[in-house]
Every structure is written in C-alpha cells, then in structure tokens.
Amino acid sequence: MKFLGNLVWLVLGGLLVSIIYILSGLVLCITVVGIPFGLQLIKFGRYAFWPFGHEVVNRSGEPGCLSIVMNLVWILLGWWEVAIVHLVFGLLFCITIVGVPFGIQHFKLALASVFPFGKEIV
Hints:
Structural class: mainly alpha
Strand content: under 5%
Oligomer: single chain
Shape: globular
Radius of gyration: 14 Å
C-alpha cells in the first residue's frame, strides 16, 4: 500500500515538490554559509519524493544550541512560508476522502519545514 501511495503522491505533485526542494538545496549549497540550509532542503526533497513509510522525528537527546540558532535563522530567512504552502495544500487535499493521506503527508512536511534542524527521517 505504501508503494501505491507513493506512486500516486508522485503523480499528484510530489515529484514537483521534491524537485523544487532539491534544486533549492543545490543552489544554497553554492555558498559555504548556505550549505547547512541546502542539506536540509535536499533531505526534505528526498522525503518529499517518497514520503509514505517514512517519519520525521526529533533526534535523540536535547536539541543543541546550534540547532536552535539555525532554526531561528531558517525562520528569519522566510522558510516558514514553505510550511504555510504545505498547510494550504494539506487542507486542499483533506477536502476529499481520497486525498486525506496526501493531506497528512503535507502536514508532516509543514511541521518538519518549520524547525528542520534537529530532525531526522527514519
């Protein structure tokens, strides 16, 4: 069922979301300062490509000082807008019963895109 969900996800826009995340991450990796942010976007791109069967969880232990600072910079640079886009698409998908699983995946992506540092995909 996960395989079928992932295939339908790709057709319904998951491929486009994944490509946008990965290309944005590669652009940010051009500069030394942007590498940590680019790596987070590439990680989300991989997750957005094949989301069913994966979870975004907090890393074990307390978040470090660096994770908190990087999350603050992430929010100040405007990446919270990505979370809002995922929330809107999640609500749109949840209008129909068939779209609820895809809406839930968008909600997971929104939650992960607010504070990406200190999270891992399992």
